[in-house]
Write a structure and sequence with these properties.
Layout (H helix, E strand, L loop, with lengths): L3 H18 L3 H4 L9 H9 L8 E6 L4 H14 L4 E4 L11 E3 L2 E2 L2 H17 L4 H15 L4 E5 L16 E4 L7 H4 L3 H8 L9 E3 L4 H13 L4 E3 L22 H16 L14 H9 L1 H5 L6 E4 L3 E4 L5 H11 L6 E6 L7 H5 L7 E4 L10 H10 L3 E4 L3 H11 L4 E6 L2 H13 L1
Parallel strand pairs: 1-5, 1-6, 2-5, 6-7, 7-8, 10-14, 11-12, 11-14, 12-13
Antiparallel strand pairs: 2-3, 3-4, 9-10
Helix pairs in contact: 1-5, 4-10, 4-11, 8-9
C-alpha cells in the first residue's frame, strides 16, 4: 500500500483522528457512552452485515471476560480454526483490539477502513466503540474467519456488539461496576448483561449470586435457552494444579471453570465447524490453555514484567477484581512490598482503599487518561486509613522512584486500573 515509514505516519494520522474526533470510553469515561443499537445497525448495513458471515461466541461480564475470551480463542486456534478475537480496551496499540489467530489487524487495514468510511462515521455520529466494532466485524468477514470470540465493551443489552447471533453466550460474573450506565444493584446489572442471551442459544454463567442466578434463569427460560452454571458443573471441584496455565493469578480458576464449561457445551455439537471434529481432544484443549499468552498476545494479567527487582502488574480495576489481586499479593514472598497505585475517578475509592495491604509503601500516581483520579486525593484518604506512601506525578516517575529506594528482596506491584498497567508496559518497552 505504502512504504513502511509512510504507513506508520498514515496509521498515526488515522488513530489520532479516531481518538480526537470520537473520544473513547477508555479516554474520557461516561460521556463517550452511547446507548442504543440503531447507529451500530446502520453502520453494519452499510458494510453489508459482515457479522452474518462468520460464527461467533459472545462474552460479557464484570470481571474476567478478557481472560475468558483469550483462553477460548487460544483453544479454538489449537483445534485448527481461524479465530477472530475482538476485545477492549487496548494497552499499547489500538490494533490489540482486533486479532486473527493472535496477529493484530494491519495498519493498512485500519487506514483503509477509516479513510473509506470517515464521512459516514461523522454524519452518523458513530461512537468510538461502534467504529472499532465495525472495523473488527468487517475484517473478520473479509478474512473469512471460521469463528470469532467477541467481548462486549460495557454491559450487554445495548452494547454495540449485541447485533450478533452467537452459537454460545458467556457471562463471566456480575458485580457493581459502571453503575451509572448499568444500574446500582446486582439485579439491574444482571439484566443488562443478560441482554446478550439469544433465543434458543445456550448460555454459560461463570459465577453467580442468588440474585443474579434468578435473573439469568428467568431470562434464559423466557428465551428457551439452555443455561449452564459453571460453578455447579462437573468442573466445580477443579484446582489450578489440574491444568498448566500460562495466565497466572488465582482468579484464573474461575475463568478456567467457565471456559471448560463453554468448551464442554460446544463439544456436544461441534458440527458447527466440520474441521474441528478430528482435533477435538483433551490434549489440544490443554495445549491451548497453556499457550494463551503466546497464541493471543494477552498481557497484564498477573504479569511478571521484571525480575531483580521483581515487578508484577495486573489490570484488575474494580472492588471485586482488586479483592482477588490484593488477596494474592499478600501471599507473595518479599522483604518489603511497594505498590504503584492509580485509580479512575468513578470507582468506589474508599471501598478499594479498604482492601489495600497495610504493610506496604505506596506510590500513588495517575495514568495518562482524563478519567484518572487525582493521586493527592487518594493519598489523603489512604493516610487517614494508616497507609504509608507518597505521590508521584505519573506512572513512569512512580516506577523510577521505586528504583531509587529498591533493595534486594523487595517486590513492586503495579495496578489499580488498566491505564496504569498500560503506562507501565510502555515504560518497560522503552527501557
Amino acid at each position: 500500500l505504502r512504504m513502511d515509514n509512510s504507513i506508520d505516519i498514515e496509521y498515526n494520522r488515522v488513530t489520532e483522528f479516531l481518538f480526537n474526533q470520537f473520544p473513547s470510553y477508555q479516554q474520557v469515561g461516561k460521556i463517550a457512552y452511547k446507548e442504543g443499537l440503531d447507529s451500530m445497525i446502520l453502520f453494519d448495513k452499510r458494510l453489508n452485515c459482515p457479522h452474518k458471515r462468520f460464527k461467533t461466541i459472545h462474552v460479557a461480564g464484570t470481571n474476567g471476560k478478557g481472560s475468558v475470551s483469550h483462553m477460548l480463542a487460544s483453544v479454538l486456534m489449537e483445534l485448527g480454526l481461524k479465530v477472530g478475537l475482538y476485545t477492549s480496551p487496548h494497552l499499547i496499540d489500538f490494533r490489540e483490539r482486533i486479532k486473527i489467530n493472535g496477529s493484530m489487524i494491519s495498519k493498512e487495514g485500519v487506514v483503509e477502513f477509516v479513510d473509506e468510511h470517515k464521512e459516514f462515521m461523522i454524519s452518523n455520529k458513530s461512537s468510538f466503540f461502534e467504529i472499532t466494532t465495525a472495523i473488527a466485524f468487517n475484517y473478520f468477514a473479509k478474512e473469512s474467519v471460521d469463528i470469532a470470540v467477541i467481548e462486549t465493551g460495557l454491559g450487554g443489552r445495548l452494547d454495540s456488539t449485541n447485533i450478533i447471533s452467537p452459537i454460545l453466550s458467556i457471562i463471566t460474573n456480575i458485580s457493581l461496576d459502571h453503575c451509572e450506565h448499568l444500574g446500582y444493584s446486582v439485579r439491574d446489572i444482571a439484566h443488562e448483561k443478560a441482554g446478550i442471551i439469544k433465543k434458543g442459544t445456550p448460555v454459560v454463567i461463570g459465577e453467580y449470586t442468588s440474585v443474579s442466578k434468578e435473573v439469568f434463569s428467568m431470562i434464559a427460560d423466557k428465551l428457551e435457552s439452555k443455561v449452564l452454571f459453571a460453578q455447579d458443573c462437573i468442573f466445580s471441584d477443579l484446582s489450578l494444579s489440574d491444568y498448566t496455565l500460562d495466565l497466572k493469578g488465582e482468579c484464573q480458576l474461575y475463568n478456567l471453570r467457565t471456559v471448560l464449561t463453554a468448551l464442554s457445551e460446544l463439544s456436544l455439537n461441534y458440527s458447527f465447524i466440520q474441521k474441528v471434529e478430528d482435533r477435538w481432544s483433551d490434549i489440544n484443549i490443554r495445549k491451548g490453555l497453556s499457550m494463551v499468552i503466546s497464541n493471543t498476545g494477552l498481557r497484564g494479567r498477573w504479569e511478571k514484567i521484571s525480575s531483580n527487582p521483581d515487578i508484577i502488574c495486573d489490570t484488575g480495576h474494580n472492588f471485586a477484581g482488586l479483592s482477588l489481586v490484593f488477596s494474592q499479593l499478600k501471599r507473595e514472598n518479599y522483604d518489603r512490598l511497594f505498590c504503584v497505585i492509580g485509580l479512575t475517578a468513578e470507582k468506589d475509592i474508599d471501598k478499594i482503599l479498604g482492601i489495600l495491604p497495610r504493610m506496604a509503601y505506596y506510590l500513588f500516581t495517575k495514568a495518562q487518561t482524563n478519567r484518572a483520579c487525582d493521586p493527592c486525593y487518594i493519598e489523603n484518604k489512604a493516610k487517614n486509613l494508616g497507609l504509608d506512601g507518597e505521590v508521584c506525578d505519573n506512572v513512569e516517575r512512580a516506577i523510577e522512584r521505586f528504583y531509587e529506594i529498591y533493595k534486594k528482596g523487595d517486590l513492586l506491584f503495579i495496578g489499580g486500573s488498566t491505564f496504569v498497567v498500560a503506562d507501565a508496559l510502555k515504560f518497560f518497552e522503552k527501557k
